[in-house]
Write a structure and sequence with these properties.
Layout lengths: L1 H25 L2 H5 L7 H4 L4 H5 L9 E5 L10 H8 L2 H6 L3 E6 L13 H15 L4 E15 L11 H4 L3 E15 L5 E15 L6 H24 L10
Parallel strand pairs: 1-2, 1-3
Antiparallel strand pairs: 3-4, 4-5
């Protein structure tokens, strides 16, 4: 009887180890990022370092430029789109750009978790191609909001202080990055990084962290437009004829 129990114990341990081995192989990083056979070929194409270094500029100016939705967070608001569209005339003056289009969220494709590494750029390239854009400005934006109350918040206990005492801080910082690439071969023409910061202190009744976040994104966009314009002015492109 004791021998039988020992054999049963060995069998259980063997099965458990086998299960652990299977689970380990299922979570193997190489297996997790390996492309699935049913994934379209364009999703599996990742350029080697040698191929990336060998990319050459091929755009003919002026170009049509597509601007992506931010890679994370909410899409552009109406006020933010207005800021982006205000770049068109200064960009035309450089001779680099003929027209711009802000890609709509309705054309955004979802990325499977396996493809998230490079699908973000690819799905925007596909959307840009639908608008016959020559280049894509791929934008990433990250906003952080810090919220805290100062000592005057004790007056909130008076109830009237909720509406009158500026005791609640909503400070927002946005970091915005954008890379301008050839939509056909991904050659990088320009990169810029900009920042937007907003500090607000309001009574609790009027304190709104979303407002400070939106304003910081708008300031970052305004700063980014100036920085990107300066980058494109470095190219020796003939000025457009009137």
């Amino acid at each position: 009887m004791r021998v039988g129990l020992q054999l049963l114990g060995v069998a259980v341990v063997t099965v458990a180890l086998g299960g652990c081995s299977t689970a380990r192989s299922a979570l193997d990083p190489a297996a997790m990022v390996a492309p699935s056979p049913d994934v379209p070929a364009e999703y599996r194409e990742v350029l080697s370092l040698e191929e990336i270094e060998g990319l050459q500029p091929q755009l003919r100016f002026p170009i049509k430029l597509a601007i992506s939705q931010p890679s994370s967070g909410s899409g552009w608001t109406a006020d933010e789109i207005a800021i982006i569209e205000s770049w068109e005339e200064p960009l035309r003056a450089t001779g680099f750009v003929d027209s711009i289009v802000v890609l709509p969220e309705s054309l955004s494709e979802s990325c499977g978790w396996r493809l998230a590494y490079h699908c973000g750029v690819l799905r925007n390239r596909r959307a840009a191609a639908r608008f016959h854009a020559d280049a894509l400005l791929f934008v990433a934006a990250q906003t952080e909001v810090r919220q805290y109350a100062n000592p005057a918040s004790i007056l909130n206990l008076t109830v009237v202080g909720l509406w009158l005492v500026p005791a609640h801080h909503r400070n927002a910082t946005t970091v915005l990055e954008g890379t301008l690439i050839d939509n056909r071969n991904e050659y990088v023409y320009a990169f810029s990084r900009a920042y937007g910061e907003v500090k607000m202190v309001r009574p609790l009744a009027y304190s709104n962290w979303r407002r400070s976040a939106d304003l910081s994104r708008q300031r970052a966009l305004a700063d980014f437009g100036s920085r990107m314009l300066a980058e494109l002015e470095k190219y020796d492109v003939p000025a457009p004829t009137p």
